[in-house]
Specification:
Elements lengths: L6 E4 L2 E4 L2 E5 L5 E6 L2 E2 L8 H12 L3 E9 L5 E6 L6 H7 L4 E2 L1 H4 L4 H9 L15
Parallel strand pairs: 4-7
Antiparallel strand pairs: 1-6, 2-3, 3-4, 5-8, 6-7
Helix pairs in contact: 2-4
């Protein structure tokens, strides 16, 4: 598969439901934050489920990510797609493992969040969006 994105990552490591990690050639780890979605952090309900869902989606896949901006932690904030061109953020929200962060996405994932809720995967029942959303 030809990848023309800024970051072409083969089987990146899932940190949680909205962050990927990749080991750089110099041995350092770079963390990539998915733009427009929010998922539970370590220690919160459904953290492990979100991390596992992200891991399954990217396992043995070439993930193409384009940088949108750099966050206040210095992480690239990205949108990513799978080889079939499906938006990774969209998939996580549809699975009920992440929520639409409207303040950052402009509501780009609102349909996916409504679909997840209609299918009984309503993450909003257990995960309150962070203040920045």
């Amino acid at each position: 598969m030809l990848c023309l994105a800024l970051f072409c990552l083969f089987s990146p490591r899932a940190v949680d439901g909205d962050t990927l990690a990749v080991r750089l050639l110099n041995g350092e780890t770079m963390y990539l934050r998915m733009e427009g979605i929010a998922s539970p952090e370590r220690g919160e309900p459904f953290y492990r489920e979100g991390k596992n869902a992200m891991a399954l989606l990217v396992q043995e896949q070439m993930v193409a990510c384009d940088m949108i901006y750099t966050d206040h932690y210095g992480r690239p904030v990205v949108t990513c797609s799978l080889p079939d061109n499906q938006d990774l953020g969209s998939m996580m929200v549809m699975l009920g493992m992440a929520r639409d962060c409207v303040a950052l996405s402009g509501g780009r994932y609102s349909d996916e969040e409504a679909l997840a809720q209609n299918l009984g995967r309503d993450l909003s029942l257990t995960y309150e969006l962070p203040p920045y959303c």
